[in-house]
Every structure is written in C-alpha cells, then in structure tokens.
Amino acid sequence: MATISIPAGTSALLLDIEGTTTPITFVKDILFPYIREHLEDYLSSHWEEDECKQDVHLLKKQIEEDMKQNRACRVHAVDQTVHTDEEKAIREVVDNVLWQMAADRKSTALKQLQGHMWRSAYASGRIKGEIYQDVIPSIRRWRGQGLKVYIYSSGSVEAQKLLFGYSVEGDVLDLFDGHFDTSIGAKVDGKSYERIAERIGCQPEEITFLTDVTREAKAAEEAGVNVLVVVRPGNMELTDEERAHYNLITSFNQLQLTG
Ligand SMILES: [Mg+2]
Hints:
Radius of gyration: 21 Å
Number of strands: 8
Largest sheet: 6 strands, parallel
CATH architecture of the largest domain: 3-Layer(aba) Sandwich
Structural class: alpha/beta
Number of domains: 2
Bound molecules: magnesium ion
Order of helices and strands: EEHHHHHEHEHEHEHEE
Low-confidence stretches: none
CATH topology of the largest domain: Rossmann fold
Helix content: 40-55%
Number of helices: 9
C-alpha cells in the first residue's frame, strides 16, 4: 500500500462520510430499511407524545400541500384527533411515509420523522454508525501531529453526530473539531469550501478534503483546497482521466504527514 503525503501546509483535514469514512451503502442498506421496518411500531409506541404529534402534524400539512399542487400521490386524510380509530390513522401515516420514501421525496416532514426515529434507534443501540477500521486510528494519529479534523457531509450535522456519537467504535465525536452540512452550501459548489475555510479560520490551501465523489473534489479544487479521492468498495467507478488526475487512497493508513 503506497504511502501518500498529506499536502505540505495542510492544517485541517475535511472528511466526507459516505464512501469515505463509512460504507456508501450505510444509508441505503441500514438507515432507510430501519425506517421501513420499524415505522408502524414507532408510531404506535410514540403516538401520544408531543414530538410524534408534531411530526404527524407536519406530515399532514405536507399531504395538504401535495393535494393542492395535484402531485400524483395517494391522498390520505391523516387525522390524529380521531383516537377511536388510532390504528387507521397510524396506517395512513405509514402509507404516506412509505410512499414518500419510495418516491425519494426530500420533504422536511419526512426528514424530521426519520431523524427522530434514527435518534431513538442509535440511542437504544439498535443502529450503530459504521466506520471503516482504518479511519479512527488515522484520525488520532493526525490529531497527535497537530492537524485539525472536520466533517463535511450532505447528511445533517445532527445525523453526523448520531453516526459518530453511536458508532461501532463508540462515541468518537471528540475527535472532530467541527461539522459542516449543506446549510453552508452544496458539496459540488466551490463557494462552499471557501466558506468552510473562513469558518475554520484558515486559507483554502491549508485544507485537504477527502471524498469519493469527483464532482465534489473538482469543486473543492476550484476553491484552492487540496483533494484526495477515496476509493472504497462499492464506490462509483472512476474514469481513467479521473484516476490520472487525482491522488487516490484506498485506506486512511496510507496518508502520512511528512516534512
Ligand atoms: Mg461521499
């Protein structure tokens, strides 16, 4: 395994999650199936709680909005106040959520309920954040050498903190100096990396970004950030041109601070 030097002048490493620190299948194979399998149970056991009521209320508003816009969806009248027919009301929420997920909707209502379900699953140990085994020892080593380490993922900061707070390696949140998500901008937009540098308080040239997605790598490069492309099982295949252009690593162990 060839050693690759962390670019000279780097003071901060910026890490992507999916396909970089974590198998790209984690969300698709673990997180989403968890929702589909436990949705009905979750709603039944939390139905009377304020947080769940708010989640259902938001879903109901989303459904009304969908009806107004004539989106092609199955229409449900979710009425949480009808306690006599709770099972039916839960069934309707389940149907709507499953429909939204199948349609890959990104509604706030859907995300909010999913977020609450995942939080409860992580906290109870039913889900553990997956991290490749080379990741944590490497981060500890880099930190020992004075580098700062940040996360930049399209998953929300809250979701990032759950993954690393309840991971297969335990709570490793103290290894990170900060978290960024798309509220700072899209990962394929160079401006986002300029903003991150500003927030960290350094020049883009002092940051080295690790990601599996070359569109993100390209955007980071445009902002002056150093880039390494991470090759992990199941990641998108790179073109010959991309292989030639980027420094590639298959394990964080390869990355050494030299000089
Ligand atoms: Mg990724």
